[in-house]
Write a structure and sequence with these properties.
Blueprint: E1 10-15, E2 38-40, E3 51-55, E4 119-124, E5 128-133, E6 143-150, E7 153-154, E8 157-158, E9 164-167, E10 172-177, E11 181-186, E12 191-195, H1 204-224, E13 230-231, E14 237-238, E15 244-249, H2 255-268, E16 274-277, E17 290-295, E18 328-331, H3 341-361, H4 363-368, E19 370-373, H5 381-395, E20 402-407
Parallel strand pairs: 15-19, 15-20, 16-19
Antiparallel strand pairs: 1-2, 1-3, 4-11, 5-10, 5-12, 6-9, 6-11, 7-8, 13-14, 16-17, 17-18
Helix pairs in contact: 1-2, 3-5
Length: 408
Amino acid sequence: MEAPSSTRASIDFELLQPTSSTSNFFNLEPDSNTTQRLRPRTHDSTSQHNTTTLATDTPIQRSLNTDQLPPRNPNPQPTHHLLTTPPHHLQPDPNHPVAMSIPGLGQFTPAPQPTPSTTRQIPLRPLAEYRFEVPRSNTTPPLTIRLTSGTAQRDGTELAQNRVYSFPRGTRARLVSYTGGMLEVTGEVVAERVVGYERAEESPEVGVLNLHFALEELRAAGRRRENGGFVGNRGGRGVVPGPRVMVCGEAGCGKTSVVRTLAALATRGGGQPIVGNVDPREGMLALPGTVSAAVFGTVMDVEDPAGGVGVSGTPSSGPSAVPVKLPMVYYFGRERVAEDVGLWRDLVGKLGSSVRAKFAADEVVREAGLVLDTPAATIAKGDVDVLVHAVNEFAGGFWRQDWIVIVG
């Protein structure tokens, strides 16, 4: 029997249609325990939605707002967990739309743009020079140079083709090509330029080469002598001493580069000359503020900022790419000779005695001779006295082949 109408109440509901733009938050599958999702209809005279009548005693489960549900998939994929009624804390609030958060969204960094290449080709004509200076900044990478064709050298030490040479920060150098060549340079520089000459006679390298050939003739003449020769400290006959060359000049004239070139060319010819330095401003194989001398029997390090005569060429700096040198060093402790002339004279006298002792004990070294770098000097009387003292200390009384080269 039907219950009286007074005991029943009818409520209008509107069927909610899912929209295709709703994200698929949950994969809902119908089951027997899930009732149709309904929402009470707002009694508005303008509403045209379909309605249905549902008795108040029909159980209605709490469910998601169907506005947030995706369209039903006709071929649903099986899931491990079937969620019919999500927990309360997962139910979205209709008044606050759900915002999706994707890791990395909004933090996209565009790919770095490729930096312009700093590699350039430097052609060198015969006897041309490539001069460069590497920045002193710690963040600046070393300058790399590769000889792709021809020949090139740094202060008499030849570069090998297709080998990459790395010049660290603060390096100031020049590369000279006797026959012409091509350099591949990569990196930043403070300054760089190519110096060429219209005629070979204008190049300073021609004068250095002529001096080297003249010294080689003197060394060869000493080897060809059949009679006589140098009488050593112990009375035995020995090899005639080789030429002694002292290079002089003003500050910045390039006398140190001449000394390195003469030493490197003699070494390439098989000689083992002694290279000395009595200028405390530029330490040779030692720190500045010293006077030193060493036997150069191997090639010099091209990549050394000091051109192969820096501290990196000694055993104290650790492993080296080239054989190290063992210098005789005396500490002066001052930058200029004029600050303590008396002490400088004493140290130069001791260094000269060490050089003479080395010549007396080693015939190969005695045959190659000496190349000496001196302090910067002018025509002032005090500077001339310094040079005269160096000549007297390194002469030793048995040399007859003395050369004084003035660079200017």
